[in-house]
Specification:
Structural class: mainly beta
Shape: rod-shaped
Largest sheet: 9 strands, mixed
Number of helices: 0
Number of domains: 4
Number of strands: 35
Distance between the termini: 91 Å
Length: 402
């Protein structure tokens, strides 16, 4: 509390002519420890919180003597307690330069701690790229505009990265929608990650450089229900490509821009139904076998979550042992070669004369076992002329002969 003394004025010097006095209060000098935020737009209006010591409210005759000073301009302060006050930043003609901030309890003497407040030109958001994204969120959105990076921290100016946010406001005038961190790349580009929105399909997106004052440009961002993938049939094909696949899922519709993406390679897709899309696998990148992500886009650049598709090398048959067997079949043949892969039950088959398929067992990536088929007719008789030998070609398929 301030210590009051009586203040009087004497015209004769011995105070014998004094008939009244006024109290004059002495107080401990106030001290500013921290303010938040340290920056705001040049038009003012930013609510600044101040922490310190020895804050008091002095007012008389409707005048508030406890003020915050921003450079040469002062505004009334609201004292919440001896260690905390708030005030509203005034407008400023000076931007991108440190302005001394101080507190005065009598409108005259200021606190002495060096605390700076910075003003900046209002940022403006003009374009969002993309302006459309899935309701699940998680995709990067690029904001384009101006005045996104008013300070140069590498040259000793204020660093504001921790107070820069995108606000997906969902039409809340107080910007209480969803706030996500923004990364400012330069004065005209910022990036943030869109939050999820399963109810509202559009929202203005605003930018703040001080976690308080937002742009008011109402640049719209739109949400859509993305395609969802359950399966792909078949789920594998040779590295040379050319396999026709059916992607199974939901939320499919004919936008005229259906694309299938195998890894990083895009090919056109065709709508078969609301749950099926057809596309043809392209050749594997660099002819390398292995799993790749297969996803679907109904709108340019906006892809679904992926399912897995396997590229394999085309099986190569080098030798078969034995090379002959009875017409009744059931001769176990050992096939040696390369690129044999077990893709699951009944996937590996031996193919005789390109028309007869028998189940095969993958022993290793170089050995497959299978039985020869019978070539007898339905009555159990041979149709091969006497003294002749029927010769059949033998090939291997590891994806059911597709």
């Amino acid at each position: 509390m301030p210590k009051d003394v009586q203040f009087t004025v004497s015209l004769v010097g011995d105070f014998s002519d004094v008939i009244s006095s006024k109290p004059f209060g002495y107080y401990k000098a106030s001290r500013v420890i921290a303010i938040e935020p340290h920056q705001g737009p040049k038009d003012g209006g930013t609510r600044v919180r101040v922490w310190g010591e020895n804050f008091e409210r002095f007012a008389e005759g409707g005048l508030n003597y406890t003020v915050c000073s921003f450079g040469t301009r002062s505004v009334a302060a609201t004292v919440h307690g001896p260690g905390y006050i708030t005030c509203t930043a005034p407008a400023s003609d000076v931007v991108q330069r440190a302005m001394p901030f101080a507190v005065s309890l009598n409108g005259q003497q200021l606190s002495e701690e060096r605390v700076d407040y910075w003003y900046y030109n209002d940022p403006q958001v003009t374009v969002l790229e993309p302006a459309l994204g899935p309701e699940t969120g998680g995709n990067k959105v690029v904001l384009r505009g101006n005045n996104f990076k008013p300070f140069r921290p590498d040259q000793g100016e204020l660093e504001i990265a921790n107070s820069t946010f995108c606000a997906f406001t969902f039409f809340d005038p107080e910007h209480r929608g969803v706030r996500v961190p923004a990364v400012v790349r330069n004065s005209t580009r910022a990036e943030c990650v869109a939050p999820a929105s399963y109810d509202l399909r559009e929202t203005p997106v605003e930018l703040t450089l001080n976690a308080q004052d937002y742009t008011d440009d109402a640049t719209k961002y739109y949400y859509y229900k993305p395609p969802f993938l359950f399966d792909v049939q078949p789920a594998q094909g040779p590295v040379r490509g050319g396999t026709n696949v059916t992607v199974v899922g939901s939320n499919f519709n004919n936008t005229g821009n259906i694309t299938c993406r195998f890894g990083q390679q895009e090919v056109p897709g065709r709508l078969k139904s609301s749950s099926e899309i057809l596309c043809t696998a392209p050749p594997a990148e660099k002819s390398q076998p292995g799993f790749v992500d297969l996803s679907i886009s109904l709108l340019p650049g906006l892809y679904s979550s992926p399912v897995q598709y396997l590229y394999y090398k085309t099986p190569v048959v080098e030798t078969i042992v034995p090379v002959c067997g009875p017409e009744a079949g059931y001769t176990q043949i050992t096939v040696t070669g390369a690129n044999f892969v077990d893709l699951g039950r009944d996937a590996a088959v031996c193919v005789f004369n390109k028309t007869i398929f028998t189940n095969a067992t993958v022993v290793s990536d170089t050995v497959i076992l299978c039985d020869s088929p019978s070539i007898l007719n339905k009555q159990g008789y041979s149709e091969v002329p006497e003294g002749r030998v029927a010769s059949y070609s033998v090939a291997v398929s590891i994806d059911g002969g597709r």
